[in-house]
Amino acid sequence: EDKVVQSPLSLVVHEGDTVTLNCSYEVTNFRSLLWYKQEKKAPTFLFMLTSSGIEKKSGRLSSILDKKELFSILNITATQTGDSAVYLCAVSNTGTASKLTFGTGTRLQVTL
Amino acid sequence: NAGVTQTPKFQVLKTGQSMTLQCAQDMNHEYMSWYRQDPGMGLRLIHYSVGAGITDQGEVPNGYNVSRSTTEDFPLRLLSAAPSQTSVYFCASRDPNEKLFFGSGTQLSVL
Predict the structure, then answer these.
(1) pLDDT (tens digit per residue) in B43-59
(2) CA distance A27 to A101
(3) What are phi and psi of B20, to 5 degrees?
(4) Contact B4, B25 (CB under 8 A)
(5) Cα dihedral sign for B54, B38, A6, B104?
(6) What pLDDT digit, counting tens, does each position of A11-28 carry?
(7) Which residues contact B4 (CB under 8 A, 6 or more apart)?
(8) Residues of chain A contacting B99 with CB distance shorter than 8 Å
(9) How many CB pairs under 8 A join A and B?
(10) Residue B41 — φ and ψ, nearest 5°?
(11) Alpha-carbon distance A36 to A27, whole Å?
């Protein structure tokens, strides 16, 4: 059974801090790892990672994948209150339906 | 571009009642799915479909039915609601690059 573990479960930081969110996984026939941001409603897509060592970057957010050690990190620099959300990590396999397995998420709160 | 449209946003049911959560997408995605999200459990896959006429079970299918008569629509039916089905439900479609697009969610309470 595929498994995704995220840490920490929750985090409170001050505006301007840098944070690192962790995602480790076990999956049969890995295809991709995805990061989503969930504020009050539906999750929204951040990154998809398929290759080790290649950083994906979007503004203050970046992410990297290590397929040997089976984990990914999501970095947020110069955090803002608008970064407060639950960050979800998910992995997909190479099966016919390529189902996604989600972690329970990291709840990030950025305070002034 | 509406994306994934999910209705209703809120619903309260009594134990034993049945209902259908509606989901429609206008992106011509073949893959659609239903998730439930519970505190501390993350998003869990209920049912999914890889195309019209094809459905399959996910991780937590019991108590739910789905059908996929068209590419656009993927309704989720609760046959006889139970308090354990109190949850937030998300419909999602997926593009060929594996990005999931979520509906806005349905908060369901079963009393």
Answers:
(1) 999 999 999 999 999 98
(2) 9
(3) -125, 130
(4) yes
(5) positive
(6) 999 999 999 999 999 988
(7) B23, B24, B25, B27, B91, B92, B93, B101, B102, B103
(8) 34, 45, 48
(9) 51
(10) -115, -10
(11) 18
